[in-house]
Amino acid sequence: MGKQNWKPGTMVYPLPAVMVSCGASKEDYNIITIAWTGTICTDPAMCYISIRPNRHSYDIIKKHGEFVINLTTKDLAYATDWCGVKSGRDFNKFEEMNLTPGKSKEIKAPIIEESPLSIECKLKQIVELGSHDMFIAEVVNVQADEKYIDPESGQFRLDKAQPIAYSHGHYYELGKLIGRFGHSVMKKKTKKKLAIKNSNK
């Protein structure tokens, strides 16, 4: 069996399926589901989202220059999909999906209280690319749900929230831990301790 050549396409999968909340007041609050998102810089912390210009949230974010990236979970999978296929022009998505708009620390756009992690972003630049425009933003604050913070280590355990990912038109619950960054060059004793720790979970 060989390899097939396909025409150029967006085949970088899986991706996070996030709900992006926007708006400066309750009257224009909205949620858009986005998979074209990611980290682009560590210092300063920066990320991006890409949106089609005809989407309702496009003009809201462009006008106010801010948005919140809310990570999603298995429990939020239905709302995540619904907010991606319905338009904020026709529905109040917070009300329809029983989601709670919460207060951001540094911006006016609301967080989604049900999300385990909300990333507050200030828009720095819009890059016009074609079907989508890239909104490049600086992260100005992150809100983490305390119920996923390990009281002993202080580590944020996103895995406990059962995060989901998007892959070629489908949503998937993330699976078991198979390693951590640097495990390929880790000393054997450390590897053994980690293996024991993971087997006791």
Structure description:
- Strand 2 and strand 3 form a beta hairpin.
- Helices cover 17% and strands 32% of the residues.
- The mean pLDDT is 93.
- It has 201 residues and is an alpha+beta fold.
User: In percent, how helical is the residue content?
Assistant: 10-25%
The run of helices and strands is EEEEEHEHHEEEEEEH
Low-confidence stretches: none
**Could you say which structural class the secondary elements and strand pairing correspond to?**
alpha+beta
Strand content: 25-35%
Radius of gyration: 19 Å
Number of helices: 4
Mean of all residue-level pLDDT scores: 93
Spatial strand order of the main sheet: 3-2-6-9-10-5-4
Shape: globular
Please outline the helices and strands:
Layout: E1 15-16, E2 18-22, E3 30-34, E4 37-41, E5 46-51, H1 56-64, E6 66-70, H2 77-85, H3 93-96, E7 101-102, E8 111-112, E9 117-128, E10 133-144, E11 164-167, E12 170-173, H4 188-199
Antiparallel strand pairs: 1-11, 2-3, 2-6, 4-5, 5-10, 6-9, 7-8, 9-10, 11-12
